[in-house]
């Protein structure tokens, strides 16, 4: 399972759409995830829609096993808002998965947030299967919504 961050996605979105990025200063930063005893590591393959994460310090494009999970009543950095299940037996390739993730997460974003991505101050990222996670049955893309104004230090 790999994480795709919002900055590469936002850069691609801005290139395609011709919009300008909101370059406001971040609001109050959240404490680092590893300093909060309420944060637990959960296997990334067992994520569920509605899970809240402390994942902004998670390396972009890294193979992941565990992800920092926190109760949604507490301040958090992102929330899983959709799970897209891929079909097929052979690994389709990162480019095909990324295209599916972007289109699907953007469509689900509007349903979850209530307005389309271009009109929202929120952004999204996604976690997707890698060849090694695909080999053990991983077929899920997890879409996560983030508020770019709330960052950890």
Protein architecture, described:
- The longest helix is centred in the last third of the chain and has 20 residues.
- This protein is an alpha+beta fold and 153 residues long.
- It is 24% helix and 23% strand.
- The two termini are 25 Å apart.
State the helicity in percent bands.
10-25%
Radius of gyration: 15 Å
| Main sheet summary | 7 strands, antiparallel
Number of helices: 3
What's the average pLDDT? Answer: 79
Unreliable residue stretches = 6-34
Shape: globular
Structural class: alpha+beta
What is the number of strand segments?
7
Topology readout:
Blueprint: E1 2-4, H1 6-17, E2 40-43, E3 52-53, E4 66-70, E5 78-85, H2 94-113, E6 123-128, H3 131-135, E7 140-146
Antiparallel strand pairs: 1-6, 2-4, 3-4, 3-5, 5-7, 6-7
What does this entry show, briefly?
The protein is an alpha+beta fold.
């Amino acid at each position: 399972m790999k994480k795709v961050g919002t900055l590469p996605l936002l850069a691609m979105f801005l290139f395609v759409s011709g919009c300008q990025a909101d370059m406001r200063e971040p609001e109050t930063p959240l404490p680092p995830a590893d300093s909060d005893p309420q944060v637990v590591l959960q296997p990334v393959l067992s994520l569920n829609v509605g899970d809240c994460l402390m994942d902004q310090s998670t390396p972009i494009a890294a193979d992941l096993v565990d992800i920092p999970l926190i109760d949604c009543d507490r301040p958090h950095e992102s929330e899983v808002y959709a799970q897209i299940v891929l079909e097929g037996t052979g690994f389709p390739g990162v480019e095909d998965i990324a295209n599916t993730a972007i289109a699907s997460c953007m469509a689900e974003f509007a349903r979850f947030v209530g307005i389309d991505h271009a009109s929202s101050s929120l952004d999204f990222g996604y976690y997707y299967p890698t060849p090694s996670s695909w080999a053990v049955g991983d077929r899920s893309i997890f879409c996560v919504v983030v508020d770019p104004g709330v960052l950890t230090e």
